[in-house]
Each structure stands twice: as C-alpha cells, then as structure tokens.
Write a structure and sequence with these properties.
Strand content: 15-25%
CATH architecture of the largest domain: 3-Layer(aba) Sandwich
Radius of gyration: 32 Å
Number of domains: 4
CATH class of the largest domain: Alpha Beta
Distance between the termini: 49 Å
Bound molecules: GDP-alpha-D-glucose
Largest sheet: 9 strands, mixed
CATH superfamily of the largest domain: Glycogen Phosphorylase B
Structural class: alpha/beta
Length: 732
C-alpha cells in the first residue's frame, strides 16, 4: 500500500455518496477546503483525504461498500463508514446538538447527553483506525474541525513523532462558556495531541489558551504551550477564499447571462442579498426583524427594494433547525403579507442550494449583502461577495460577531441584535455614493486576494512542519536510554558519588497545598532514597526550599543530608546549622504587605519560614493571580528598598528572602566537602538553575520538564526521575 505524505481528515469527504433508485450516486462538493488541499503542491497521490461519505452504512451492502471504497480511492479519498445510530448520536448529537450550540454561545440549545459523548469517542476511534491504516511516522496529518477533537491525542499515542495539525472552523468560546461542557478536560487533552492548533482569529486563540490553563494547568508563552514532554503551538490562520475562482467566474459569460436575467426580473429594484445555511447561529430571524423595521421606517423604499433570502437546508433532522425553519418562514409570510402589494413582494425566499453560477450572479448583482450572524467562526459569504464585485459596486453589512470582521474593517459593521441600528445602516448602504463603495471594495479585495485559501493552506502546513521541527529540537535534550545507561555505568565505576536532589516537582509532584502534611513523599520514593543512600561511597543530599521541620518529618530517619530553605539551613551530623544573615528585621514589613493582598485574593496565602516569606498562588484564578502578583511585587519593592533582600518568582510562588545564599552557593560548598568523581543533580525550577550553574563540567544534570535550562538533559516527569534513581539504587 502506498503511504501518503499529507493526510487530510475531516468529518465529511469532498465527495458525497447517496443512493438513488438503488444505485450509488457520487457528487463532488467543490468547497473551499477541497481547493485548499489541491493547492498544497506535490502530486495528487501525495494527498489522501479521510472522512465520512455522507451515507449511513446500514443502507449499504458489502458490495456497495467495496464499490464506494474503490471509486473514492481513485480521487484520493478513503471512507470511514458510520451507522445510522452513529450519525444520530455522534453527528446530530454531540457535534451538532452539544458542541455547535455551545461554541456559538447558544447555551440554552446545548444538549448534554452521555450517549452522545460515548458515540463521539467511538467515532473518533474509528477515524484513528482509518488514519493509522495509511500513516507512517513521516506523514503530515491535518485534522479539521469540531467533529474530531479527540483525534489528535488518539493519533499521538500511536505515532509519538508524527506531525499532527488541527484546525477549528468554528469559534472557540470564552472559558465562561467552555467550562459548562462536562467533557471539557477530555476535549482539551484530545486537542493537545497536535503539534499545531489553528483558529480563525486571535480571540479564539486567547480563549483556547485560557481554557487550557484553567482546565489542565498548562501555561503558554507566545502561543506555545509546554506539556511535560512536548510543546504545542497555537496560532491564528484566518481562512481565505479561492479568490480567483470568484473573480473569474464573476466575469464569465454564464454569470453575465444570469446577472442579466436578474436585472430583467428585478428591473430597477435594488437587491439586498442574504445567503446562509439555515442555522440559528446565522441570525436570520433578527435580520428579518431589522428588515421589517427598515420597511416600516422608510416607506420611500417600498417597491424599490427586494430582500433575496437564500437559506440552504442544513441539519434538517435536528430539533432546533426544524423550529428555526418554521419560525423564519412564518416571519417571511408575515412581512410579505404586511408590506407586499400585487406587484411587489418584499422578500424573495428560497429554501434550497443554488447553482454556483447563480450564487455568483447574485453576489455580482446585489447592491447590499446582509451578513449578520449572531456568531460565526469566519463567514465566507462575506468574502465571496467582495471577491465577486468585479464589474459592479455594492455594500457589505457585516456582523461584528463574525471572524471575518477582523479582515474586512471597511464593511458596515453592525451588532446583530441592534435592529434599530441595522435598519439605519440598510438605508445608508442603499444610498451610499458609488465612489465610496468602490474605494471600500478595492481595499477589501486587495486584502482577500493576498491571503486566499491557497495561501492559508500553505501557511498552515508550513507552520506545521516548522513547529514539528522546533519541537523535535526541544526534545533533543530528553534523556535517552543510551545516556541513562551511561549515567548508571559512571555511577557504578565511580569512587565517590554525590547526588543533589530537589524535592517539589522533582521527587514529588506538586499538590495544591504547600503544607508539608499535604505533600509527603510516597513510600516508593522513601524506599528508593533509602536504598540509594545506603549504597557504599554515596552521599545523597535533598536540597529544598522547604522548612527544616518538613524535611525532618519526611526524611529525618534516613541517612540523607538535608538542606532546607534553599541553603539557609544545612543538616550535618544530626544538627541543623544556619547561615548567618539578618532577615528577621524585615519580616514584619513583608508580612504586612502580603497579608493585605491575601485577604482579597481567593486561593492565595502566605507561608513564613525562618529565611523567607512566601506568597503562594497555585489555587488563585490565573488572570487574578497575574494582576495581583504584579502589584504585590511593586509594593514589596517599594517597602524593601535595599540590597539585602531579593524577590524571586518560583513555580506559582513569589518568595522574598535574603540575598547571597541560594541553592548554587550551597552546591559549591557540598561539592568541595564531598570531592566526588560522580555528581548527579536533578531539579525542576528557577532555583535549581543556580545548582546547575555551580556544577563542574563532568557532572550529570537533569531538569524535570521542558523549557530553557542549563542542565545537560531533561526528563518529562517525576515518575521518570524515580525510575532513574531506582536503577542507580540497584546498581552493583
Ligand atoms: C463553517 C463555519 C467558516 C452557501 N449557500 C450556497 C453555497 N454556499 C456556500 C458559500 C460558502 C459556504 O457555503 C458557507 O460558508 P460560511 O463560512 O459562510 O459558513 P459555514 O457553512 O457555517 O462554515 C464558518 C467556515 O466553516 C470555513 O472555515 O467560515 O464560520 O461556520 O462558501 O458560498 N454554495 C452554493 N449554493 C448555495 O446555495 N453553490
């Protein structure tokens, strides 16, 4: 079997299969995505498209399936067959009755149903199997849209090194909406299997990053999320249209003929055009309301204007869509009945899919396009209208709740809920001077031409390759099996061995409370440490920011050397010795500043140690923490205006402590005392970088987690550290 270089995965294939009079019928849908894919370069055989062909498998015999598969293969497509039950629960259910309404801010239409969710997981697994059938570790995989949000992680576990991209075509809602989803964590984890996640606008990127942080705790910097062993890049790629196709078709004979027919039919009337799938997110009822208001307020336009409303049938089996259709058709009858005359019908309504040339002719002829969704990921109709205006003028009225508005700022922006405002804008649009219309169209056309759907696809796939490459470099430092073996070998042959180990985040995972009663070492860890410390010629040092009391309770019974409070306390021969520094005199001021903040910052609290005061904010909502931390540090600097004290940012803490002593200074002292020919140092945060800096070249150093470090190697998790220590403890 030929393995493909790019696999596109989307719920629907660009070819639909149906059965007419018992015979299979194949229909191409020349959508934007199909054009985008064909522009990706390489041979057609380099691309493979996996998706559902649009017909339930219950209606197909084995022979039908074989025929479909063979026929689709010829066009580079591979079918995933779904049963009627899956179509109902996965597609109509979880996709279109749960995710679609919630992500478009229609909370009350959102149906939370366990059966839907089960089916969603099941179908994502079906897609995974289909992809694995074709993918190699070198394949680039590009997954599309909200139907397949679990697929990136499902594929990642099977193909750890694959290059996986995901693009969401609908909005990603604010966390306040997203948090309502019972499966919010699984969906985020599903998406994080990708190397690159793309959205239409930066607002959706922001919402996504904040939802990632709030549901999983993973933070991001400049759009890069750092997981334990990988990074994920998140960015905005506003989808374009096939500009040439629209501008060329607009000039074609077929369209000119259609436009002429429209001209004859509507004579001197101005046309306002409305084209969408019949979907509640598109705001059709409020558009009609505004149009009615316009007719009421400006009778001089009666018989001079017609609203051509094309509503394309969509998801007709879903309850909310049935109700919407009834509602829209009732309102149209009402307006036509109220304002129409024998020779004039204000709204010309078509509930069907019209031919492409007819659509472009309508774009070409329409004086105004009303694109007023209540929410829309991007909205291509707005862009297509502008591209089709090659020989004519026109005005675009565009909702500010579409993704497209970011690029089309010359459009007449409206709030789709403001019918009064829209009525005025309709009047202004119908009377706008042609020179002004031309000027606005020109700027928008230039922009759309320069970032067409072809550029969009190339941009996304280039970025995917780039981010996969950068991520591969990042994981270059991850400790390999070979280096692990080297470390064990060096440990075994050394005359004297020194191990310098941090505790939180290195030997134990972070817990939500810093209290030592809440973060005790596991039995497994204690066992490994004991065994390790009892190895001959071996000194094991725990170098922590924790207090003496905590370290004593946890490790006092083991033959380990302990360093508390980042080096201010050192335990040798069963007694603690302290660094000679003056800190006491500052404590009162520091605590008083911090207490003021703690009282009005939910989740934050203060910890007092002998040589530091710590502000903990792990349980504070991140946005609030960000704001409070900035002003807390400002106030602290103001109060402690001297060189003896430093303010250090740690992992979800701000620590105020004396200058001079740190984990690096103590490391220097320990290395002199121990005189070892094997040194291994493991840590995870900024304070541990001081240790890494103090090590001789020959030492082994490991940072837990990704991110910049001076350490020679990295390990992704505490568990992996324990594995390594276990190997050393068993070395003979
Ligand atoms: C989703 C997101 C995002 C419409 N009627 C006819 C017809 N169309 C074509 C248009 C346009 C497409 O359908 C509709 O695209 P939109 O972007 O407006 O909306 P969705 O279908 O909701 O698309 C959306 C998009 O994905 C891409 O990422 O922009 O936000 O919801 O291309 O031309 N085509 C023909 N006859 C019709 O009657 N031939």
């Amino acid at each position: 079997m030929v393995k493909q270089k790019i696999i596109i995965v989307s719920n629907r294939l660009p070819i639909s299969v149906s059965k007419v009079n018992g015979k299979l019928k194949f229909t191409n849908s020349a959508g934007g995505l199909a054009t985008a894919v064909s522009s990706l370069g390489g041979n057609a055989s380099d691309h493979l498209w996996i998706g559902w062909p649009g017909i339930a498998s219950d209606d197909l015999s084995q022979k039908d399936r074989r025929q479909i598969t063979t026929r689709l293969h010829r066009d580079g497509c591979y079918p995933v067959f779904l049963t009627k039950k899956q179509v109902k629960k996965f597609y109509d259910g979880y996709c279109n009755a749960t995710i679609w309404p919630l992500f478009h801010y229609f909370q009350t239409f959102t149906n939370h149903n366990d059966d839907f969710w089960r089916s969603y997981k099941e179908v994502n697994v079906l897609f995974k199997k289909a992809v694995l059938h074709y993918a190699t570790p070198q394949t680039n995989i590009w997954i599309h849209d909200y139907h397949l949000m679990l697929l990136p992680s499902l594929l990642r576990s099977a193909l750890p090194k694959a290059s996986i991209g995901f693009f969401l075509h609908i909005p990603f809602p604010s966390f306040e909406l997203y948090r309502l989803l019972p499966n919010r964590r699984s969906i985020i984890e599903g998406l994080l299997g990708a190397n690159l996640i793309g959205f239409h606008t930066y607002d959706y990127v922001r919402h996504f990053l904040s939802s990632v942080q709030r549901t999983t705790g993973f933070e991001s910097e400049r759009g890069i999320i750092t997981l334990a062993d990988r990074t994920v890049t998140v960015d905005a790629f506003p989808i374009g249209i096939d500009y040439e196709k629209f501008s060329d078709t607009a000039k074609s004979d077929a369209v000119l003929r259609e436009t002429k027919l429209l001209g004859e039919h509507y004579k001197d009337m101005q046309i306002i055009l409305s084209v969408d799938r019949l979907d509640y997110s598109k705001g059709i009822p409020s558009r009609l309301e505004a149009f009615e208001l316009f007719l009421k307020r400006y009778p001089r336009f009666h018989k001079k204007v017609v609203l051509v409303l094309v509503a394309v049938p969509s998801r007709v089996t879903v309850e909310a869509y049935k109700n919407l259709r009834a509602d829209v058709e009732q309102t149209i009858s009402h307006i036509n009945g109220m304002y129409g005359t024998v020779d004039w019908t204000p709204i010309s309504y078509q509930f069907k899919n019209i031919e492409f040339e007819q659509l472009v002719a309508l774009y070409q002829r329409a004086d105004v396009a009303m694109v007023t969704p209540l929410r829309d990921g991007m909205n291509l109709v707005a862009k297509e209208y502008i591209a089709s205006k090659q020989k004519s003028t026109g005005v675009l009225i565009l909702s500010e709740l579409t993704g497209a508005v970011d690029e089309l700022h010359e459009a007449e922006r409206i709030n789709p809920n403001d019918s009064q405002g829209i009525a005025t804008i309709i009047k202004n649009a119908l009377t706008m001077p042609r020179s002004k219309q031309r000027e606005k169209l020109h700027s928008m056309q230039q922009r759309l031409q320069s970032y067409s759907v072809q550029e969009w696809a190339t941009d996304f796939t280039d970025q995917l390759k780039q981010s996969t490459k950068v991520q591969a470099q990042l994981s270059d430092k991850l400790l390999s099996t070979a280096t692990t073996k080297n470390i064990v070998r060096a440990f075994m042959s050394a005359k004297r061995r020194t191990l310098l180990l941090d505790y939180d985040g290195t030997l134990a995972d972070f817990v939500s409370s810093p209290l030592h009663t809440k973060a005790p070492p596991s039995k497994a860890l204690l066992k490994v440490l004991e065994k390790l410390a009892k190895q001959p010629r071996t000194n094991v040092h725990i170098i922590s920011g924790r207090t003496r009391e905590a370290l004593d309770v946890w490790f006092g019974h083991l033959p380990l050397s302990l360093v508390a409070e980042h080096g201010f306390w050192v335990k040798n021969n069963k007694t603690w010795a302290q660094e000679d520094v003056a800190f006491k005199k500052y404590k009162k001021d520091i605590i008083s500043v911090m207490e003021g903040y703690a009282q009005r910052t939910p989740g934050a609290h203060i910890e007092e140690k002998d040589f530091s005061i710590v502000w903990h904010y792990r349980n504070t909502p991140p946005e609030l923490a960000y704001a409070r931390n900035a002003s807390l540090q400002h106030d602290l600097r103001h109060v402690l205006n001297n060189d003896e004290i430093q303010i250090v940012n740690g992992d979800k803490i701000i620590e105020v402590k004396p200058q001079g002593t740190n984990k690096g200074t103590i490391t220097n002292e320990l290395l002199v005392e121990n005189k070892s020919d094997f040194v291994l140092c493991i840590g995870d945060d900024a304070t541990d970088e001081d240790m890494f800096r103090a090590l001789p070249k020959s030492a082994y150093s490991i940072k837990v987690g990704l991110g910049e470090t001076r350490a020679r190697n990295q390990l992704p998790s505490v568990n992996k550290v324990l594995n390594l220590l276990k190997q050393l403890s068993q070395a003979k």
